[in-house]
Amino acid sequence: MSSAWRAELFWVVLLVLALAFLVRLSGNWFFATSVCALIYLFRHLFFINRLLHWLRGGKSGDLPQADGIWEEVFYLVFRVRRRNKRRKKQLLRMLDRFRTATAALPDATVVLGPRNEIDWFNDSASRFLGLRRPDVGQQIANLVRNTRFVTYLSDADAGPTISIPSPIDDTRELEVRVVPYGDEDFRLMVARDVTELKLAERVRSDFIANVSHELRTPITVMRGYIEALCDSDSALPERERMIFRRVEEQTNRMHELIESLLALTRLQSGLQRSTPETIDVAELLDGICQEAEVLFGFNPKLSTAIDAAWGVLGDGNELRSAFSNLVINAMKYTPEEGAVTVTWSGDENGARLEVSDTGPGIAPEHLPRLTERFYRVEVPGVRSRSGSGLGLAIAKHVLNRHDATLQVESVVGKGSRFICCFPGKRLVALPPHEPAASSTGVCAASDEEFVDRDPDCARPAPDSAR
Questions:
Q1: Which one of 3.30.70.420, 3.90.1210.10, 3.30.450.20, 3.30.390.50 gives the CATH number of domain 105-193?
Q2: Where are the domains of the chain?
Q3: Which is nearest to 441 in space by CA: 424, 420, 462?
Q4: What is the residue-wise DSSP string for 362-407?
Q5: Sign of torsion over alpha carbons 259, 261, 267, 270
Q6: CA 223 to CA 253: how far, in whole Å?
Q7: Measured between alpha carbons, how far is 388 from 404 in angstroms, rounded to an integer?
């Protein structure tokens, strides 16, 4: 038994002796019992009042004096308060370190409450967003007045980031990201200055576009003269004819590379968007598959499973370019005894284009970089490897412009599957006997064009390439 309980038992024994004395003195049990109970109750009320006074205003270091069980109670409360005080100091130190670290960040950081009100922000937010200390508690949309930003805050499907001009400097471009954190619907908003990055990207794209455009004229002249020389076979010895044939092949390849670079630059810039029209995907895929069978001589075997009930809103030339890249790519990387399957299916929620092959497959380490420009996967046994590596990059950008995504699944030794997923807002239900006209051109290509994992059958019409 603890000393506190022994002291409390002493008080109980003392009151029992007092009760016996009062009964013997007065002879009244009720009077004696009432007096002793009141004394014991008054003692507990006294210590309860002292505990309440201590908890309300007393310092944690001033432990009240007590005896009996109340001494144990006061000590336990004192120990809990001392532990909480230490924990509070640790949390305050951690909070100060966090605020110091976030204040030193070069990116604007803002903590938003459940109603998108400002709870806290660092110094960079003052420089980039123009926030001031009195703005704490105000809704961020009232201070950053940008329509796209307001839509981004309220739309959960708006995407991971958004680019907006700085509210205090229109020449600066900010990349804004808002992510949830905590259990109380708080969100963290980070705005990064990407002005220099966007400028460097624009300069790089302009450089590639300008150089490619300037090379088109001399390459075209060279092609014309070489074709004229090759046509005069009788006037040239056999050795010179072979040399000119090789020069013609490489000149054609350079021409296709320039056209692909111009197409990719146009797609990345987001300019020259045509008015979306209804594209009959079944008709489009049928034409692409016929061209692929003619090009590869029906080896490997090409089979299709196409749902003709659904079309897509978009640009026919761009979709033909993307789909041609995927189909020709699969045909080229599949052995002659293998098979390629093209599937198009959909419903009101979305549609999928799947191009599957039984080729050698792609190693997992190549999959993340497969859609990078000029990235090629060297696979033994492939018919040719002289491509530019731009085909899948073009396909990815075409799909992005149509709100679609490209997924790649591959198992080494078993084959690959390329999946294009279109959202429901891009789909159009086609009448059974009235397919929509597709404004697509013919993607003419030679064996030399489809020569790497990213085929180059992606060049636009001559007018759109400029």
A1: 3.30.450.20
A2: 3-98, 105-193, 198-269, 277-429
A3: 462
A4: --GGGGGGTTSTT-----TT-S-----S-HHHHHHHHHHHTT-EEE
A5: negative
A6: 11
A7: 24
pTM of this prediction?
Answer: 0.51
Strand order of the β-sheet with 427-429 is 277-279, 310-314, 427-429
CATH code of the domain occupying 198-269:
1.10.287.130
Q: Distance between CA atoms of 111 and 263, rounded to whole angstroms? A: 42
Peptide bond into 300 cis (omega under 30): yes
Sign of the C-alpha dihedral computed for residues 29, 32, 36 and 42 taken in this order: positive
Q: Determine the Cα–Cα distance for residues 259 and 220; give it in Å rounded to an integer.
A: 12
User: Where would I find the H helices in 105-194?
Assistant: 123-129, 140-143, 147-154
Q: What is the pLDDT tens value at each position of the chain, 466 positions in all?
A: 567 777 778 888 888 888 888 887 877 888 888 888 888 888 888 888 888 888 887 555 567 777 778 888 888 888 888 888 889 998 888 888 877 877 778 889 898 988 889 988 888 888 889 899 899 999 998 888 888 888 888 876 666 888 889 988 888 899 999 888 776 688 889 999 888 888 877 777 777 767 777 777 788 888 777 777 777 656 667 777 778 778 877 787 777 777 777 777 666 665 555 677 888 988 999 998 988 888 887 778 888 898 888 889 888 888 988 898 899 888 888 888 889 999 998 888 889 999 999 888 888 888 888 887 777 777 655 554 455 667 788 888 888 888 899 999 988 888 899 999 999 888 888 887 444 333 333 333 333 333 333 333 333 333 333 3
Structure tokens at 261: 């670079």
Rg for the chain, CA atoms, rounded: 39
CATH of 277-429, one of 3.40.50.1980, 3.40.30.10, 3.30.1660.10, 3.30.565.10: 3.30.565.10
Phi/psi at 202 (5° precision): -65, -40
Token reading at 189: 């908003």
Closest C-alpha to 458, from 377, 405, 396, 407: 396
Which among 285, 421, 406 has a CA at the least distance from the CA of 350? Answer: 421
| Cβ-contact 241, 350 below 8 angstroms | no
- Reference 363, options 331, 410, 407; nearest CA is 410
HSE, side-chain direction, 13 A CA sphere, residue 193: 19
Residue that has been written with the tokens 């013609």 in this structure:
248
Closest CA to 187 of 115, 137, 237: 115
- Counted residue by residue, the chain has a size of 466
